[in-house]
From TrEMBL:
It comes from Carya illinoinensis (Pecan). PANTHER family: TRANSMEMBRANE PROTEIN (PTHR36408:SF1). The lineage of its organism: Eukaryota, Viridiplantae, Streptophyta, Embryophyta, Tracheophyta. This is Uncharacterized protein. GO terms for cellular component: chloroplast envelope.
Length: 65
């Protein structure tokens, strides 16, 4: 009887471990996608800041003329 309980617990533990491994893989993929989106957003912000600075410099040139 004890061997059956041990075998059952071992089986459940193995299944749980496999499920956790699958969930980990999914989360790692999702994290990778989130990181790509955040990087793209950072790059977009950088371009916007560069554009704002360029516009500001152009405005100062017009003021000086």
């Amino acid at each position: 009887m004890l061997q059956l309980k041990t075998a059952t617990l071992t089986q459940k533990n193995s299944e749980s471990t496999r499920m956790l491994a699958v969930q980990e893989e999914i989360l790692e993929k999702e994290l990778g996608e989130i990181q790509k989106v955040l990087l793209a957003m950072q790059e977009q912000q950088q371009k916007q800041l560069e554009l704002i600075l360029a516009i500001g410099k152009t405005g100062k040139l017009w003021e000086n003329k």
